[in-house]
Design brief:
Aminopeptidase, 30% helix, two-stranded antiparallel sheet, 17% strand, eight-stranded mixed β-sheet, 314 residues, 8 helices, alpha/beta
Amino acid sequence: MAALVLLPIEVSDAGWLSDVFKGSSKTDKSPKHVTSPKRAAVAKPAASPKPHAARPIAKPDTRLAALGPAGLHLPALKPAATVCDASKFRIALDVGHTAKSEGATSARNVAEFVFNLRLAQQIEEKLKAEGFAETKLLVTEGNARPSLVKRVAAANELQANLFLSIHHDSVPNKFLEKWEFEGKKSYFSDRFSGYSVFVSRANPDFKTSLSFAELVAREMKAEGLQYAQQYAQPIMGRDQHPLLDKETGVYSYDKLIVLKSTRMPAVLLEAGSIINRDEELKMDSAERRDIISSGVTAAVKEFCDPRWAILGPL
């Protein structure tokens, strides 16, 4: 395995949702989902979520007490026993794909890697502004498959508390249609749109991965965004994935290396479809990037301290 560079890692590789189908041009007929060479046995979920750089709550918050039992909405407070120290909470924020292996190509011929890097940088900025100073942007170099191993090694070496990978979606090649953009032959598919969130049931802390994925997806939905429903449909063939949360759009992608081999809760966000001509324009806008980065930041804050969702900053 290639030696790691100190973070932010200039490991430039991204083939991973090379995974969740990035069929972008007719010259690229190989499946974009890159999974591990060997099928690994699915790890049993941990009995209970692991603490995340957690510290005990020293004393009840007076505002919590003032709400009374009916006002607490106890299900929203899980895992209620502890909160994390944001300044020490390590988030590995992975930029999907690499400058050499760019992932999907948008309807207007822009590489997915460009979208991923731009959005991930804005998420990093917002997280650090909210006190998550140990957020590390992972920018990987090289070809698709080797980059998967590098990403996992980087996150594990960092001993991150949370792994989040940022991607933008496409469709399998069979759904692509031809059009011309700025005098150049291009491809699009307006059939599908929306965000999606993925976890692996083989992750050593699947339960916590799922908890964070649901927080991210709920924030996306709260912003009025719709999730991509095609992954649960038989028409997707081998790209079909089990839908774990039909309300918010959380799917399992069990074989994906970066989700199953990281030693911390791991989630992958497909922020939206860039092969859809209308949605590509939205994903290219500062407004949409702000909505998504704010949603992810809110999800991380609630993950770190469940009380935040009810009370706001404490």
